[in-house]
Task: structure prediction
Amino acid sequence: MIDFIESRAGCIILVVLLLCAAEAAAQKEVLSEMPISLSGTVSSGYAGGSGGGLGAQGGSTNSFTVGTADDLIGYYYNPRFLQFSVSPRFTWDRNGTAAQSAAMQDRNDGVVATADFLQGSKTPIHLTYSLGQTNTTSVTGGPTPFTVAAGGLAQALSVSSSIRLAHLPTLNMSFSHTDSQTDVSGVEAPTEHTSANMFNFLTTYLLAGFHLSGTYLRTSNESTTQDLLNLGVPYAPSVSSSQSENFSVSHTLPWRGSASLSFGKSSDSYTVSGTPQNNSYDTATASFAVMPTQRLTWNADGNYTSNATDQLINEVINGQPTSSTVLGTGRSLILDSGMTYRIGHGFSASGAGSHGSSTVLGEQLTQNLGYGTLTYNHSLFHGFLSMSYSPGWNMVDVTEAGVTESTSGLYNTASVSYQHRVGRWMAHGNFSYLNNSAAEASSAPEVANAYSANGTVRTKIRYTWEVLFNGSVSKSTVVGYNGTLTELFSGQISNRTWSFNAQYQRNSGYLLFSGSGAPVASATGTSGSQTPSSATQAAWFPVNPDAWSPPVLRTLYNTSDGYSFSGSYNRRQLSFTADYTYGNGVYDTATVPTTTSNTYLDMRLYYKLRKLDFQAGYRRLTQAASSNNALNQVSSGYWLTLIRRFHAF
Result:
């Protein structure tokens, strides 16, 4: 079915392009009020390769290829009245997609059309439609994703409009629809099918100094995904819909201050593995900041959600970043306030307090935190030094089955950074440390110790070569759970013609998967182990949400490492690039750990001669997964292509 759709789509694209060109040429003099232009490229080449594994063609393949990528642009009457564009891209080869699949090279055939109506007016309208096909798909696995040969078709439609009239509220409306399906040969059912709709409405108004805004959002999603890596993640058909309303108001205050207040209501319904669920939650936030004197600043804020579990699920369903107000999995309230005073001579002092209460997987958690901070920022030895130290007192009460356990302890954070230049050398480094003596094992992971450090060195050699080295390390110890670690080291040397890069990275931590099987976040510990200022910026989630029914979210502990090398040569007519990447990962599944590895080599050569472009390339992909031998493959391919740019009219 996919092959039929793809071939039909390609024919339609080609026929429409030819008809538009013929019609435009015939009407060029008659329709002077609708000038259009057609430009693009035509290409011809040869591709070949070999490969095996899930969805790939076994043995060797080769094929002659012919393609075109065009842009048809025009307007009617006036560019501000109606402006449009059509950009088709089509590639044909004698053996279908055999050569491209063997080389794991995605063709991305399709068409994109846009139209702008009444641009620059008070009521503009924008429309975009795209239809495309692909011959590869990606599967999550380690630092680099798995690539398998597949047939896919996707389309998307979006419409947006706004109304801006004097002395009236502004209105912004948008609607979008997306639909995609991917089929991997060797898999009976579609590997992935997704469909989504979204309607968004936003209005703003300025009334007597008050900034008012209101939003309405409604979404619907349907997806079916298979777990090709056999990670045990609940890949099951899921259907969901949600809607939310939000109202906010803000106003300036005396003492160069401002205040804001917002209320929101959201609801969602979803079905996972045939189990329907309906959830709803309310949110409220308030904040203000004032500066009574040049040296003193006072700020406070509060965040409330009636059900943090439903809020997290709603955000994951809609593909949004997890909210910074999530402190647990039930009702959550966070209040904090602080003051900062600039002493002078680079010194400043601040103090703050925070109160938080939430429900975490059946446990009632209450936290009170108070801390002070001393900061120093000043030039030193022709460089610049920044230091801060924050001691605090952390008190946590955990109530379960009517029994309350209290813990308290000292909380310390410290950081230092320094930047210095010596001749052509510029160096910068910083280090931060956290210690929480009140951390203890619970269903909400708490960070007991954490540190991070990074440094950068930059220089120039003979005024032409730029050299850059960078390294960073961060590590945390989580009570009752595995810790997290991230290491990244990189180097670069380049001039106007040459560029060389190298990078090494190692990670360990938790990955959060949604019901559709896609990783949506990574965990580093609870915000309860951070200062109030950072707690309002770092969202977290329970490391063990498997108790939820149905299992909408699932976490897996992942360790991975990888390295890469790349180089390039660029001149006006000639350029060459080469990239090599290696990565491996281990997922701690409920049964047997899954080990993955990937090796990827990509080399490309470009040469320009007037209106002709010559391209040549070679790719080699090696990948393996211990949980699914069908994903194991070694594929390679090369291609030679001659491209001619043209401007028809």
